């Protein structure tokens, strides 16, 4: 598998860096297209996605939670898939938390209630679940973020990849990441921020290192890093609690999983 980083910015897009979004693709097989899944559709990621794939060629979209910096480009993706020059042959599976389509239709207007199902085949996540998409097996489970939120693990039969979405440290994320070769974790809190909240909603870099250690993964990729922390500092701080490879995601990166 390979993961293309579309954007990592939090909580709004910056010049040259869209909000959270990733393109996960299976290995190419002779004569076949790779299975392609858009993971999180943060602001600005649809434009970046099109550098690599036409939206109509997606096999699925997976959304970790309903916050705008992870979902906003679903609205313009609807326009791209419904009204542009090329539409998908079948509705694209959209796997996300409960109420996602209702929120989209509230923004897009009453006519979209009937039109959205022509573009997206909605599968709502309400707990642990799984689904096969092409050659990829997706698994998800609830994580701690103050709103319904989910982490993701994807396997292709030989490799496993895990993603935190937005989440504070929690046992369910560690369980999802077990057996993964790469764990992609947000680090949206600077040092001390988590301690100020009754219910933490993000990882600090230190938390990310501890989560990777608890999950037993060999590689940690930090993303969605707090604006007060440089990527280099985040990597150094996470590495103090994790002995494996640690890197920061950069827009445009293509990671071999």
Automatic annotation (TrEMBL):
Gene3D superfamilies in alphabetical order: Ribonuclease Z/Hydroxyacylglutathione hydrolase-like (3.60.15.10)
Domain of life according to the entry: Bacteria
A single GO molecular function term of this UniProt record: 3'-tRNA processing endoribonuclease activity
Domain Metallo-beta-lactamase as annotated: residue spans: 37-225
Protein name: Ribonuclease BN, tRNA processing enzyme
Taxonomic source organism: Herbiconiux ginsengi
Organism placement in taxonomy: Bacteria, Bacillati, Actinomycetota, Actinomycetes, Micrococcales
């Amino acid at each position: 598998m390979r993961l293309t980083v579309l954007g990592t910015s939090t909580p709004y897009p910056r010049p040259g860096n869209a909000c959270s979004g990733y393109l996960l693709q299976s290995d190419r097989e002779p004569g076949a297209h790779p299975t392609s899944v858009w993971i999180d559709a943060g602001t600005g990621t649809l434009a970046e996605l099109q550098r690599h794939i036409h939206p109509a060629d997606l096999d699925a979209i997976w959304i970790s939670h309903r916050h705008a910096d992870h979902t906003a480009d679903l609205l313009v993706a609807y326009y791209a898939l419904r009204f542009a020059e090329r539409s998908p042959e079948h509705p694209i599976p959209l796997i996300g938390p409960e109420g996602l389509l209702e929120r989209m239709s509230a923004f897009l207007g009453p006519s979209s209630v009937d039109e959205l199902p022509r573009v997206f085949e909605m599968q709502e996540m309400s707990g642990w679940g799984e689904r096969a998409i092409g050659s990829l097996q997706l698994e998800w489970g609830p994580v701690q973020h103050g709103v319904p939120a989910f982490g993701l693990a994807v396997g292709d039969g030989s490799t496993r990849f895990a993603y935190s979405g937005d989440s504070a440290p929690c046992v369910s994320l560690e369980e999802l990441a077990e057996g993964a070769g790469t764990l992609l974790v947000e680090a949206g809190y600077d040092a001390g921020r988590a301690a100020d909240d009754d219910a933490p909603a993000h990882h600090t870099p230190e938390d990310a290192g501890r989560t990777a250690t608890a999950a037993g993964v060999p590689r940690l990729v930090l993303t969605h890093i707090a604006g007060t922390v440089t990527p280099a500092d985040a990597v150094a701080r996470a590495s103090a609690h994790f002995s494996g490879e640690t890197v920061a995601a950069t827009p445009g990166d293509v990671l071999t999983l």
